[in-house]
Structures are given as C-alpha cells and as structure tokens.
Design a protein that fits this description.
The protein is α+β, with helices and mostly antiparallel strands. It has two domains: 90 residues, no CATH class; 68 residues, Butyryl-CoA Dehydrogenase, subunit A, domain 2 (Beta Barrel), CATH 2.40.110. 33% of the residues lie in helices and 12% in strands. The chain is built from six helices and five strands; from the N terminus they run ααααααβββββ. It has a three-stranded mixed beta sheet with strand order 1-4-5, with helices on one face. Strands 2-3 form a two-stranded antiparallel ribbon. A hairpin with a 4-residue loop joins strand 2 and strand 3. The radius of gyration is 20 Å and the shape is globular. The N and C termini lie far apart (45 Å).
C-alpha cells in the first residue's frame, strides 16, 4: 500500500511530538553508551527510562507487527522516524540491549516461528527486556557450520543438547540463545541442522567468557 505525502507529513508531526515529550534530553547525542551489549553504560538512569518508553511505544522495532508489540509502521514511516530521531540526537538502544534479538532471532521467529513462539518471545524482544545471543561456532566448526558437532536428541517432551559452542558474543549475559545443532545424523553433513532456542537459565549450561585484552568478553 502506497502512502501519500500528506500521511507521511502527519506521521512526522506525530513522531516529532512524541520525541519531544519522551526522549530524555540528557541522552542527546549519547549513543555511545550502548556501543557494546556487554558494557552498556547505565550510569544515567534516563537510559532505562528511554528503553522503557521506546519499547512500550513499539518504536524500538518500528516495522514489526503491532500485535506482538512492534510499532506496526510502514518502511516509509520507519524512515521518517529515523530522520526525526537523528534530528534530536536520539538513538535506538534496543538494537544493542536486546542482543541478537532484534537483528537475527526476532525476524527469524516472525518468519518461521509458530504463533505460540511469537507470542512468547517477540513482545519481550520489542520491550528490550530479553537479551539474545547466537550459538553457531564450535571449537572445530566456524566458517564451515556443516562441521558442527553439537547435537540435540528428541526426548519426546523436550530436546536434550550435548556439545559446545564458542565465540558466542554475550552468552554470559544473555537470557536466551539461538543455537544451531545437529538433529539428524545420517546423510550429507549439511542436512539435519536445526535452530533451537535455549533458555540460558539452566544449571546444566556453563558459560566461560573469553576475556579480551581490553577487558571485554
């Protein structure tokens, strides 16, 4: 559906008004406070306030369906919103504080997930309240993911995973992790790979951060 310039101008006014009322001036031009997910600078309490306001409005995920907590905006409206945020020095912290939730996992769930999965996970991603990591690489499988050895067996009412992942950015601070695992063990090695969502709050899961020279992991 095409949108008239009049409609876009009206939305621009709406965005300007909302930003004027909701974006904390103390954060103007301060996008660097969310430069890295593992080291978000929360010394300014206005950051959490801004995350909450943006998430509740749905504008942290502007084009995602409103029924799951997104903004429900068109691509053109999202571009207008970006322009108006830039004009006042605002930024979208949810693209960092949700980890891979917004950039990778959320779009995958929206495209391929069940309605139950969408209702369970998407609203929390939209609010920036769930941090996601991605478990792809392994000690002996990096660029060639077909060589992965981490396996998952169907136990009827749950899947049992066994294996290791490495270079999983943010794994030590994430609540959920999207993991590529082998669920079929016959045939070509590029077949039988599945994407499984794991609740990281389980005693059986061990995370060991790899400390970099700068102190981050």
């Amino acid at each position: 559906m095409t949108q008239s310039q009049q409609d876009l101008d009206a939305f621009r006014e709406t965005a300007q008004k909302w930003l004027a009322e909701n974006f904390p001036s103390s954060l103007e031009g301060q996008a660097s406070v969310v430069l890295r997910a593992e080291s978000v600078d929360r010394s300014n309490p206005d950051l959490d306030l801004w995350i909450d306001r943006l998430g509740e409005k749905g504008w942290g995920t502007p084009t995602w369906p409103a029924e799951y907590g997104g903004g429900g905006l068109s691509q053109l409206e999202a571009q207008v919103l970006d322009q108006e945020m830039e004009a006042v020095g605002a930024f979208n912290p949810l693209t960092i504080t949700a980890g891979m939730g917004i950039t990778m996992v959320g779009p995958t769930i929206l495209e391929y997930g069940t309605d139950e999965q969408k209702k369970r996970h998407i609203p929390k991603i939209c609010l920036g309240r769930t941090f996601w990591s991605l478990g792809y690489s392994e000690p002996n499988a990096g660029s060639d993911l077909a060589s992965l050895q981490c396996r998952a067996e169907d136990m009827g009412d749950h899947w049992r995973l066994n294996g290791q992942k490495t270079w999983t950015s943010g794994a030590d601070v994430s609540q959920w992790c999207g993991v590529l695992v082998r669920t079929e063990f016959k045939g070509p090695k590029r077949d039988g790979i599945s994407f499984i969502m794991i609740d990281m709050n389980q005693s059986e899961i061990e995370t060991r951060p790899i400390r970099l020279i700068a102190g981050a992991s």
